[in-house]
Amino acid sequence: MIIPPEVNTKLMPNGVSVMKTKQSITPRKVFTYAVILLLAFGNAMSYHIFVFPNRFAPSGLNGLCTIVQELFGLNVGYLSLIINIPLSLMVYKLVNRKLAFRSMIYVITFSVMLVVLEKLDLSAFAYSTENGTSTILGPLVAGIISGAVYGFLVKCSAYTGGMDYVASLVRIKRPDLNFFYVTFLINVIVACISYFVYGYQIEPVILCILYSFMSSTVSDNMLKSGRSAIRFEIITDNPAELSRDIIAKLHHSATLIPAKGMYSGQEKNLLICVINKSQIATLSKLIRRYPNTFAIMSSVSEVMGNFKKLNPEGKENKDYLDSGDSSAV
Q1: CA separation for the pair 122, 227 (Å, rounded)
Q2: What is the DSSP letter of 53?
Q3: Contact 216, 89 (CB under 8 A)
Q4: Beta strand residue intervals within the chain, DSSP E
Q5: Torsions phi, psi of 247, nearest 5?
Q6: Contact, 291 vs 251, CB < 8 A?
Q7: For position 7, what pLDDT does the model report?
Q8: Cα distances (Å, whole numbers) of residue 113 to 140, 290, 315
Q9: In this predicted structure, what is the pLDDT of residue 78?
Q10: Closest listed residue to residue 269, CA positions, set 255, 280, 283
């Protein structure tokens, strides 16, 4: 048998030869790594422009690192590497190679840029006010950037390290554990310590809370935006005609379920259809075309499955970021 050049063989201990396909470097994968590097640089810049000048600690383990930097002058970049390198190795070995590798690319770039940017004069760009007015804008903008960075990283199959690493390791033993409360506890600890570290003032505590709220809100909205949808349950006497309109106009299908009206005792038809939020008005117009037809609309937080993602014009959406698989990097 002739083995193609992109495939090699590996001899197993039992003497059986198996084929392994080499992972190819695609333009989409290169673009994904470029995005990870850009996100790390942007978040490091955000720390130097919005976080450090306003003297508050952000959320998570980086918040604890920021407090250590405030007390002892040790750069957050060094502390981030000290914490995340052993965690990354554990995740690489026990959880997922791709996740650990891509996350470490982000962590290393983020940490290095924190150290490098410290040596540059960024006072012309740093946001801070002499009399403390509008200090709230610093953590708000930093939280928005942090949430956006996290949202894009998840689409790249990467994390920011820290608590994400810890959560993935804990879920090996306790997959049922809700790690939200652990993260919340860490953020509470960071906020409380901030009071004592930053001159016994309540303002750094408030700024930490605002940062955490904005970061989690933006990241949650970003992660849900691509997976949320609207579910329609339609009672109609014209299921075939309405289904054809849905397929032709919305490029979605529908599921027909026999039903029975309990008030009239008549046999009815129930169509279940899941569409994008932008298509609500179009489907509403289609429903109004048919007599004795009404619908119940509800929000869907996530849609899963192996299906094509089509835009309103019926063309398949292109995914510019590479999500890889469990073994690819």
Answers
A1: 39
A2: G
A3: no
A4: 7-11, 17-21, 229-236, 255-260, 267-275, 294-300
A5: -65, -40
A6: no
A7: 43
A8: 22, 61, 40
A9: 95
A10: 255
Q: Give yes or no for a contact between 131 and 184, defined as CB atoms under 8 angstroms apart.
A: no
Task: Give the whole-angstrom CA distance, residue 209 versus residue 186.
Answer: 12
On whether the CB atoms of residues 303 and 7 are closer than 8 A, the answer is: no
Amino acid letter for position 231: R
- Which helix (DSSP H) or strand (DSSP E) does residue 259 occupy? strand 255-260
Scored b (16 or more CB within 10 A) or e, 220-240 reads eebbeeeeebbebebbbebbe
Q: For residue 295, report the phi and psi dihedrals to the nearest 5 degrees.
A: -140, 155
Nearest in space to 78 (alpha carbons), one of 65, 88, 89? 65
% of the chain with per-residue pLDDT over 70? 83
Q: Using the predicted structure, report yes or no on whether residue 226 has a pLDDT greater than 80.
A: no
Phi/psi region, residue 226 (left: phi>0; alpha: psi -120 to 50; beta: rest), is: alpha
| C-alpha closest to that of 212 among 46, 63, 30 | 63
DSSP labels, 15-44: S-EEEEEPPP--HHHHHHHHHHHHHHHHHH
pTM as predicted: 0.76
What's the burial of 327, exposed, middle or buried (CB within 10 Å: 0-12/13-18/19+)? exposed
Two structure tokens written together for 9: 């063989």
Q: What tens digit of pLDDT does each residue of 235-250 get?
A: 998 899 999 999 988 8
Q: What is the DSSP letter of 315?
A: P
Residue 298 has phi, psi (to 5 degrees) of: -145, 155
Torsion over CA: 164, 98, 224, 153 (sign)? positive
